[in-house]
Design a protein that fits this description.
Low-confidence stretches: none
Mean pLDDT: 94
Number of strands: 20
Helix content: 10-25%
Largest sheet: 9 strands, parallel
Oligomer: single chain
Number of helices: 2
Amino acid sequence: MIYSFKGHIPVVHKSSFVHPLAAVTGNVIIGKDCYIGPGAAIRGDWGEIILEDGVNVQENCTVHMFPGKSIVLKKGAHVGHGAIIHGANLGENCLIGMNSVIMDDAEIGDECIVGAMAFVKAATKISKRSLVVGNPAKVIKQVSDEMIAWKTAGTKLYQRLPSDCHESLRAVEPLREIPKDRPQQENFYNTLNEFREK
């Protein structure tokens, strides 16, 4: 669902995909090849939210802020299932782990990885290529080339997903039996697993 609010109508590039069960409201700009999953809420009612090209905001995420703020999720930012971004800016090609909370005025640097369920306090500044975990979150080491290559490969899958959704996602009635000619899915996991084997 796309909602106007006080004259602000979201701008969504035609190559991006916003799931019908997501809500995008008001002063929101979504760039190219972005994926917004079901249950996500991107609420630009009190301020501006910009998603640069190739960003994904997965299922049940929230992106919001205090009044008068403007935030940017930079190119290739990857926001995992259930995460909350509240008034924070995300750097290029960073990964925000599932169910993490990133608070107001926090700055997550380029190519950072924030672990699942981390809590990043308000106004925290995380320098680029940091691996961040815990509650409260702290930097435990630098992100290696191998780690960022694995992250980038995963994000590329999400950057392909919008075109796949435009082409093939349809509301249907469920089948009542498993068909004999049920199609096989592509094995994306092996693609990502190659990085673990190096």
